[in-house]
Amino acid sequence: MLLVDVLPEGTLLPRYDRSALRTRIVHFGFGAFHRAHQAVCTDRLAAEQQSDWGYCECQLNSGDLIKALRGQDCLYSVTEKTADELRTRVVGVVKEALFAREDGVERVITALCQPDVAIVSATITEKGYCYQPASGELNLTHPSIVHDLAHPEQPVSFPGIVLAAIRRRRALGLPPFSVMSCDNMPENGRVTRNVITQLAQQQEPALADYIRKHLTFPSTMVDRIVPAMTPEAFDELSRKLGCADPVGVECEPFFQWVIEDNFVNGRPAWEKAGAELVADVLPFEEMKLRMLNGSHSLLAYLGYLAGYEHISDCMDDPYYLKAARSLMLDEQAPTLSTKNVDLTAYADSLIARYRNRAIKHRTYQIATDGTQKLPQRWLDSIRWHLANGSDFTLLALGVAGWIRFVGGVDEQGKPIVINDPLRAELAQRVNDSQEGDERVAALLSLRAVFGEDLPDNSLFREKVGHYYALLLKLGAKETVRQVIG
Ligand code: NAI
Ligand code: CS2
C-alpha cells in the first residue's frame, strides 16, 4: 500500500485541499496511460491553480486496481524516468472509484448523473468503442452492443453506459456533458460520437437528435509513453518508493495533450498545466498516429520476431533504427496534412524517446490489438501512396510482419499468444490457409480491417506477399537489414 510518509524526499505530494474537489469528470479506463497523463495534468491544476476538478474513475472489465486505489485513499504515484533521473508525484485528484461489475452498472450511471459532471473521458483502448476499425462506425454485431440493444437500462459497453446516462440526465433536466476520448484513434471524437449516436438511433431516434444538438465530442491527440507495469517493475518501484504502490506507474518525462476546445459545460483550464487547446486536432493526431504509432507498430512486429523485447532494444540495431526513421520521414511524412511543423526534428525527437533505456516498453505490448491499430497507423498512408504512385516498402513490410506475427508461431517455432478482439477470426484464417501466399491472401481479405478497397488491390497484395516471403526465408532481422541496408 502507498504510504505517503515514507516516500523519498523530493516526491511531489498533493498538498492542496482534496476535500474541495468535486466530481466533475467521470473517466472510463483507469489504465496505466490515464494515470500518468490526463490525471497528472488535472492534478497539476489542482496543485498550482486551485482547480476543483476531481475524478470519478470507472473500470468496466477488471476491478483489482479500483480495489487497491480505494485501499489507499484514492492516491497513487507516477514516476517519470530517464537514465539518470527519477521524479515521483502523488496524484490526488481522484475522488471516487467504481468497478461496474461489482458495484453495479447502476452506480456508474448514477455517478454520471451527478449534476456537477461536465465531462466524460475515456482511455479504454480502441476496442472499447465497439467500432469497425476500417470505417469508424458502430459494430452492431459486437456482443456487448447486441446485449445493450436488448437491455438499454443494464448496459455493459462504454457506448451503452454513457448513452443510458445521457437518457437519464435528459429526463432529469440536467445539463448535457461532453464526451472526450483520449485513445489513439483518428478523429477519436468523431468515432465516439458515431458509436454513441448510432446506438441511440437504434433505440430511440429522438435521443440521437438530442445528442447531435446538445452534446460535444472533443477530439484529442495524446502522447506519453507509459509501459504496462510488470512484477519486476513493481518490485523496483517499491524499492525506490520505500513502500509498495500497486496502483503506481512509470513513464517517460515527455507529455503532450492537444485538445479540441469544444466543451458544452465547461472544462478545466488544462492549458495552464501543459495541454494545448486548439480548434482542429486532426493535423496533430494524424502526425502522431502515423509517425509515432506507425513506427511503433513496425518495430513491435519486426522487433518481436527478431527477439527484441523492448523498443529500446530495437534502437540498438542500426537497421531497425534506420527503418523506423525512414518509415516516419519517407513513407508517413508525405501523407500528412500537418503544416508548419519540422517533421525531421519531430522524427529525431521520437527516436531519442525510443532510446530511453529506463522505459521498458515491450514490443509484445505494442503488438497487441493489431486489427484495431493498423488502419490509422498504416493503411490510410498506404492508400495515399497507391493514389500517388509512390513507394510504400516499409509499410508493406510492416503488414507482412503483422501477418507473420498473427500466424501465432515465432521464428524459433515457439507459440505467440495473440491478444486481439478478432483473435478467433484471425486464428481461423491462419488455420484454414497454407503458409505462404494463401496465408497472406486469407488475412488481407479481412474487410473489417483492410476495408473494401485494399483486399482487391493487386499492387498492395503483391508487395505484402513479397515481403512476407522474405520474412519466411530470411527472418525479420535479415529482412530489415536487406530492405534498409
Ligand atoms: P491498460 O491496459 O493499462 O489499460 C486499458 C484500459 O482499458 C483499462 O482500464 C481497461 O479496463 C480498459 N478496457 C479494455 N478493454 C475495454 C473494453 N472493451 N471496454 C471498456 N474498457 C476497456 O492500457 P493503457 O496503457 O492505459 O492504454 C490504454 C489506451 O490509452 C491505449 O489503447 C491507447 O489508446 C491510449 N494511449 C496509451 C499510451 C501508452 O503509452 N500506454 C499513450 C497514448 C495513448
Ligand atoms: C503504442 C502506444 O501500445 C501502443 O500501441 O504505440 O500506446 C504509444 O506508446 C503511445 O501512443 C505513445 O503516446
TrEMBL record:
SUPFAM superfamilies: 6-phosphogluconate dehydrogenase C-terminal domain-like (SSF48179), NAD(P)-binding Rossmann-fold domains (SSF51735). The keyword Disulfide bond does not apply. The keyword Electron transport does not apply. It comes from the Bacteria. Residues 24-272 form the Mannitol dehydrogenase N-terminal domain. PROSITE patterns: MANNITOL_DHGENASE. Residues 280-468 form the Mannitol dehydrogenase C-terminal domain. Pfam families: Mannitol_dh, Mannitol_dh_C. Its EC number is 1.1.1.-. Keywords: NAD, Oxidoreductase. Signal peptide: none annotated. GO terms for molecular function: oxidoreductase activity. This is Mannitol dehydrogenase family protein.
